[in-house]
């Protein structure tokens, strides 16, 4: 999602799609489907048509507008009813699981899923996660003139349309995914700082990993919680990493016009942050990121509170800050001060 996309989604894209579908449905009512299907499967040239139909069915996600349909579906799916009215606050760091399959057009000359195609899947997985978790907060922050959640330095509500922009993506490849092989994308919020919301996504072998519970009506199989050995010995946690194909980290920024919205505002407006003494935003960068607050011992079995949220955020931030430091590599570009090796065709 880029800045401004969500401001156009409902007033422009949804009515346009609805009008198109309504017209197509109206025209379809007057077609003789029995005759058309009979001709398609038995008439002259049927072999070519059937082969083309099978090819298209195996490559739906890679066809023209396939990516657009997948991403728009994720918006509509959650904004129009798939999300429960309320989520438990502990769901903030829980996974959103999305299934997919490698199409033939995604397969490279090594006969496995091309590395470049992981990023299109990440767009879909992140859209499901962010829309499901933060959908309640989007209209609240979007109507900032009324709700006054985002203020400028003079204390006035910031103006502008609401949008989300992708800042960067890192992907580490562990093992290949074969042609037509199914897999799952497990995405969750990793952490946030004063500007970025970081999301981690694991590409996982399909059907091999099951959570202990689900929220809402969209559910899959579950497993029992891991039980510790008697006597305080090592636990029996399986090695989940052996099921990982790849792991990616992405970062989103929320915008009102050109003004950056603190991620904690979005999360709090969506009802997923417990109350915290002094609020979730401080007066300087260190305090804003929670580094100046001594959490003390955090009881993992206790009720979900701000200390548990902050402890989880800091744990993820240990990884995200190294990822964020790579932004500095922009300064390494010198415009070919000492020359270049060549300019090549067919890029």
From TrEMBL:
The chain crosses the membrane at residues 6-24, 36-58. InterPro entries: HotDog_dom_sf, THEM6_lcsJ_thioesterase. The keyword Transmembrane helix applies. It comes from the Eukaryota. SUPFAM superfamilies: Thioesterase/thiol ester dehydrase-isomerase (SSF54637). Pfam families: 4HBT_2 (PF13279). Keywords: Membrane, Transmembrane, Transmembrane helix. Belongs to the lcsJ thioesterase family. This is Capsule polysaccharide biosynthesis protein.
């Amino acid at each position: 999602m880029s800045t401004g996309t969500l401001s156009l989604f409902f007033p422009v894209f949804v009515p346009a799609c609805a009008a198109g579908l309504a017209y197509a449905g109206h025209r379809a009512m007057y077609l003789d489907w029995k005759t058309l299907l009979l001709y398609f499967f038995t008439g002259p040239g049927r072999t070519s048509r059937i082969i083309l139909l099978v090819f298209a069915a195996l490559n739906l996600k890679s066809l023209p507008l396939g990516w657009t349909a997948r991403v728009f579906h994720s918006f509509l799916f959650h904004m129009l009813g798939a999300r429960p009215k309320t989520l438990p606050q502990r769901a903030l760091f829980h996974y959103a699981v999305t299934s997919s399959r490698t199409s033939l057009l995604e397969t490279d000359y090594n006969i496995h899923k091309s590395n470049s195609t992981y990023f299109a899947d990440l767009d879909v997985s992140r859209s499901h996660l962010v829309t499901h978790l933060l959908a309640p907060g989007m209209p609240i922050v979007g109507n900032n003139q009324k709700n006054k959640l985002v203020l400028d330095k003079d204390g006035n509500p910031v103006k502008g349309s609401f949008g989300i922009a992708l800042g960067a993506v890192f992907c580490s490849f562990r093992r290949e995914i074969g042609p037509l092989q199914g897999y799952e994308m497990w995405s969750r919020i990793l952490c946030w700082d004063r500007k970025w919301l970081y999301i981690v996504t694991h590409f996982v072998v399909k059907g091999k990993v099951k959570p202990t519970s689900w929220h809402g009506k969209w559910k899959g199989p579950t497993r029992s919680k891991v039980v510790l050995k008697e006597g305080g010995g090592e636990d029996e946690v399986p090695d989940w990493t052996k099921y990982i194909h790849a792991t990616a980290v992405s970062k989103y920024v929320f915008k009102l016009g050109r003004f950056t919205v603190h991620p904690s505002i979005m999360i709090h407006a969506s009802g997923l942050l417990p109350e915290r003494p002094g609020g979730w935003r401080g007066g300087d960068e260190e305090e804003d990121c929670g580094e100046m607050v001594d959490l003390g011992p955090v009881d993992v079995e206790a009720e979900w509170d701000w200390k548990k949220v902050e402890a989880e955020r800091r744990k993820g931030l240990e990884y995200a800050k190294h990822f964020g430091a790579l932004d500095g590599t922009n300064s390494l570009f010198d415009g070919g001060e000492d020359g270049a090796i060549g300019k090549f065709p067919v890029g």
